[in-house]
Task: structure prediction
Amino acid sequence: MKVSCPPLLLCIFLISASLLAFLLRQSPASDLHLPQSPMAGPKRSFVLWLHGLGDSGPANEPIRNFFSDSVFNLTKFVFPSAPNSPVSCNNGFVMPSWFDIHEIPISSASPKNEKGVIEAVKNVHAMIDKEVENGMNPENIFICGFSQGGALTLASVLLYPKTLGGGAIFSGWVPFNSSIIEKISPDAKKTPVLWNHGMADNVVLFEAGQAGPPFLQQAGMTCEFKAYPQLDHSISSEELNNLKLWIKSRLGSSS
Result:
């Protein structure tokens, strides 16, 4: 097993900090004001963002500044934080983690923690179900995630029984073996997937991302894959702008 020690742990925290600094630097000054209070009544759309290992939801909230177009005026953004738990690839160090990871860098052949992923999926589905119960059209619900959050995004889309608006994966990987395909509902297979991955990623290797589209094709799903040369294990403004356009093109008309 490849074991990452404190230097990698430090790297993860630096990535989280640099992502926040990058987003604050790149966001237009006029867009830096977050909503002061939640909007009353049902929202026309819902975007759930799942952060990466060692990160937090609040640290990723500046991402919403990229969605300043009027079509997102009635969009509810939620940035939950993962629970603190021991992580095997960091010598059991306790940190925010959606599920345990056994090795880093992650390749397409890395061990799968399917049990832990499925437990994490239940929490994501509970958040989605709450929105649906409040009148949200599932096809206006979008799950997005970076790194570990990207793997959880894919798992959540695959195992949700209804068709969602879409799942957007950034520098993620397939956290399941192919046997999971028989558990994907016909409606879930209609959910579109956007997959983004940096070709210089040395944490979740590019080949781990490349394994995504064939897996989804085997499951009978569609996937739009975008590769970014020179991009390491991080998110770029180009990726987020593409995400904005991708969601805009898929938003339904019902609230």
User: Anything to note?
Assistant: The first strand starts at residue 45 and ends at 50. Residues 1-18, 24-42 have pLDDT under 50 and may be disordered. The longest helix spans residues 6-26. The two ends are 48 Å apart (CA to CA).
